[in-house]
Each structure stands twice: as structure tokens, then as C-alpha cells.
């Protein structure tokens, strides 16, 4: 299977854009680790242990708020329960949590890919995002990371922020590139309704940047990173050849994955390969600590048409796209006449390449969400 996603729900403070489940109280971290290990052991000798795990991803929340010893205990439990053929073990971390000793401890535990949430070095933007770290801490952290035993690491940056100029974005990219990262995740700011930013927009206190501005930011990111040998392989992800994320790439290919921890999502093909189940652990730490994970929360059954639509949306976000043959063979899906005409128009406008394999061009990837919405509403 693609792997295990471990949701660590603790954060020092709430970032203004984040809509993932988290708590800012940290007194239950060891209780959480103990309960997570119980959840891991509950999967022993189940359908989830019949496939070898290729990747593990510690997300959150802020996984770097756990000690290296706690991370090691979690990984020991995973190795004891699951058949593992691990190509990648990623842990998300914030700059203010990182030291040489901590990275060495994580490496010793088995983490081989660090995901550093820098987002920006600009003090005003960090304040706007309500990040817990300073630009100086981010710089120090990247110095430590570059000098560490981690050969594979990724740095996150957010563009398309209100008031963010191209000069400020370029400065952020130039600073990151000084540390020779093999992978960068560059996300266009998404304002979700229940976040602090979402409420500010709703109250009229914040105006999102215009599409043209975000498009200019996108172009700068693609060009700047490509010039450094870091190529776009998905809408928000860029890598040097061979450093693409294993875990996320398997998500986009519709591989099985199991989520552990409060708020974690899972996706699993049913035995007939004609349907799949998706479910989410309840987003409530107190309930989780009381064993709430023992029952699947709101399982959703997905039939082949559902899955075909989802695979289309995932595949077209990647640079390589997807093949018509795969859609036909695995999902019994073929494009209808309206969709084929739409794709042809996209190609004529330089936004897509069609044929046996369909993928969006750089211009198409700029407006992926709009194109996907058009396509799936034509079914």
C-alpha cells in the first residue's frame, strides 16, 4: 500500500490559514503517543497488514513537537505490526523546534525525509500567517538541516498572500535556494471558510489577491525553481530528478493508505476493485484518548464513477497526467463527447495535451481547479 499517515494534533498556536485538526494544549502528548500505539496494535493481523507499507508520513498539527524518543516508539510499533518495505519516512517540522540533536535523534529513529514548514522569511508575512517561528529561526533551521545527515528534505513556501509583492516572493525563493533543497512545496494561499483568514474575508476586513497576481506568482515560482534544476511535477510540488515525494505521489495514484490519529483520513480499495471506502478518524483528541478510534467514523462508499472522477482530478494535477487506457481499464471510464470537445479546445488554447495520455500544460496547471470543475460537471 502507499502507506501510513500519522496525524499529530499538537500546535503551539493556530496559523491563520490552517483548517487541519489541531489543539494548542500539549499536556497530553505522552497520553496521545500511548493511545496511538494502541491504535497501531489494533491493526495487527487485519486486512491492513496484508500489503507492505512503502511510506510513512507524520503530519499535523506539528509532529516536531514530539520528542525523537516518542517518534521512535511509534515507528517501533509500526514495524512490529506491519509488513514494511519502506522507501520514505517523512516528518513535518517547524523551524522553532529544530536543533542538531533533534535531527540526529529523528534520523536515528528512522526518519529519512524532513518536511520544513518555512512558508516565508518575511516578518510581516509570518505575522499575517500567525506562524510561531521567526525568519531568523527559519534561516538557522535550514543551515542545520543542510548540514545534517538528511539527504532528502523539502521546504514549504506559500505565495499569493494579500499584499505580497513579486520582490518579496523572489527574496523568499532566493533564500531557500541557498540551501540547495532537493524538493520544494509551493502552495498558493487557499482561504478556507472556518479559518481566521476566512472569517476576515467574510467580514470584509481582508481582500484576497486578484487571479492575475496569483498567476504572476505562479510563473515566478515555476521559472525560478526550474532555473535551479527543481522541476514542477504536481501543481504545488517541485523536485530535483529522483527526489519526488513517494508518499504524496501514491496518494495521487489512488493507492491504499491508512490514517492513524485524530482527524486522520484513510482510503482503501474493496476486494472487488470496483469500489473503495474512505473514512476519517473523529477530530477530537479527548475522544481519541478514550479509544474513539475503535470504530470507523462516517465511512463513505465510493463506486467506480466516483473513483473515476476522483482519479481524473488527482491525475490532472500532476505534470505527467494520466492515460485514457488506465481510466478505461481500472475505472470503466471513457470521456464523453462534450468532455472530448472541451479537452480539444484546451489543447488549441495551449492549456492541455491530449491523445493516449492527457496532461495539462503550464498554462493549464495555473487554472487546474477551474478546468477540473468544468470536466467533472460534463459527465
Rg, Å, rounded: 21 Å
Instruction: Quote the average pLDDT.
Output: 95
Strand content: 15-25%
- Give the structural class: alpha/beta
Percentage of residues in helical conformation = 25-40%
Give the strand line-up of the largest sheet. 7-8-6-5-4-3-2-1-9
- What is the CATH homologous superfamily assignment of the largest domain? Aldolase class I
Reading the helices and strands in chain order gives EHEHEHEHHEHEHHEEHEEEHEHEHHEEHH
CATH class of the largest domain: Alpha Beta
Major beta-sheet overview: 9 strands, mixed
Description of the molecule:
- This protein is an alpha/beta fold.
- The chain folds into two domains: 3-250, TIM Barrel, CATH 3.20.20.70; 304-379, Orthogonal Bundle (Arc Repressor Mutant, subunit A), CATH 1.10.10.
- It has 15 helices and 15 strands.
- The strands form three sheets. It has a nine-stranded mixed beta sheet with strand order 7-8-6-5-4-3-2-1-9, sandwiched between helices. The protein has a three-stranded antiparallel beta sheet with strand order 10-11-12.
- Helix 1 (29-41) packs parallel to helix 2 (68-81), helix 2 (68-81) packs parallel to helix 3 and helix 6 (166-177) runs parallel beside helix 8 (211-227).
- It is globular and about 55 Å long.
- The mean pLDDT is 95.
Keyword list:
379 residues, TIM Barrel, 2 domains, alpha/beta, 15 helices, Arc Repressor Mutant, subunit A, 15 strands, 9-stranded mixed β-sheet
Topology:
Layout: E1 3-8, H1 29-41, E2 53-60, H2 68-81, E3 84-93, H3 100-109, E4 113-119, H4 123-129, H5 135-147, E5 152-159, H6 166-177, E6 183-188, H7 196-202, H8 211-227, E7 231-234, E8 237-239, H9 246-252, E9 257-260, E10 265-269, E11 275-280, H10 285-289, E12 300-303, H11 304-315, E13 322-323, H12 324-331, H13 337-348, E14 352-353, E15 357-360, H14 362-366, H15 368-376
Parallel strand pairs: 1-2, 1-9, 2-3, 3-4, 4-5, 5-6
Antiparallel strand pairs: 6-8, 7-8, 10-11, 11-12, 13-15, 14-15
Helix pairs in contact: 1-2, 2-3, 6-8
Amino acid at each position: 500500500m502507499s502507506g501510513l499517515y500519522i496525524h499529530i494534533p499538537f500546535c503551539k498556536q493556530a496559523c491563520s490559514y490552517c483548517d487541519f485538526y489541531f489543539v494548542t494544549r500539549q499536556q497530553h502528548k505522552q497520553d496521545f503517543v500511548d493511545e496511538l500505539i494502541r491504535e497501531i496494535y489494533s491493526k495487527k493481523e487485519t486486512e491492513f497488514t496484508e500489503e507492505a507499507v512503502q511510506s510513512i508520513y507524520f503530519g499535523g498539527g506539528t509532529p516536531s513537537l514530539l520528542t525523537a524518543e516518542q517518534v521512535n516508539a511509534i515507528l517501533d510499533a509500526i514495524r512490529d505490526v506491519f509488513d514494511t518495505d519502506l522507501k520514505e519516512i517523512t516528518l513535518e517540522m517547524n523551524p522553532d523546534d529544530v536543533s542538531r540533536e533533534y535531527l540526529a535523534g529523528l534520523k536515528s529513529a528512522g526518519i529519512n525525509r524532513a518536511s520544513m514548514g518555512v512558508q516565508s522569511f518575511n516578518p510581516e508575512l509570518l505575522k499575517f500567517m500567525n506562524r510561531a517561528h521567526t525568519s531568523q529561526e527559519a534561516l538557522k533551521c535550514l543551515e542545520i538541516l543542510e548540514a545534517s545527515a538528511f539527504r532528502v528534505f523539502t521546504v514549504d513556501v506559500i505565495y499569493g498572500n494579500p499584499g505580497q509583492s513579486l520582490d518579496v516572493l523572489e527574496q523568499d525563493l532566493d533564500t531557500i535556494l541557498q540551501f540547495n533543497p532537493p524538493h520544494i512545496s509551493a502552495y498558493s494561499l487557499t482561504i478556507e471558510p472556518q479559518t481566521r483568514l476566512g472569517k476576515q474575508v467574510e467580514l470584509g476586513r481582508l481582500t484576497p489577491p486578484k487571479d492575475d497576481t496569483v498567476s504572476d506568482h505562479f510563473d515566478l515560482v515555476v521559472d525560478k525553481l526550474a532555473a535551479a534544476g527543481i522541476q514542477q511535477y504536481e501543481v504545488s510540488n517541485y523536485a530535483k530528478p529522483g527526489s519526488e515525494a513517494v508518499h504524496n505521489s501514491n496518494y495521487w495514484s489512488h493507492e491504499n493508505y491508512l490514517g492513524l490519529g485524530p482527524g486522520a483520513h484513510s482510503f482503501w480499495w474493496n476486494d472487488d476493485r470496483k469500489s473503495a471506502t474512505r473514512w476519517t478518524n473523529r477530530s477530537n483528541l479527548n475522544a481519541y484518548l478514550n479509544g474513539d478510534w475503535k470504530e470507523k467514523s462516517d465511512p463513505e462508499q465510493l463506486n467506480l464513477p466516483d473513483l473515476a472522477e476522483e482519479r481524473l482530478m488527482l491525475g490532472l494535477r500532476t505534470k505527467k497526467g494520466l492515460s485514457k487506457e488506465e481510466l478505461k481499464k481500472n475505472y470503466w471510464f471513457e470521456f464523453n463527447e462534450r468532455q472530448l470537445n472541451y479537452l480539444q479546445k484546451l489543447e488549441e488554447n495551449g492549456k492541455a495535451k491530449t491523445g493516449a495520455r492527457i496532461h495539462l500544460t503550464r498554462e493549464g496547471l495555473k487554472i487546474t481547479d477551474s478546468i477540473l470543475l468544468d470536466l467533472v460537471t460534463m459527465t
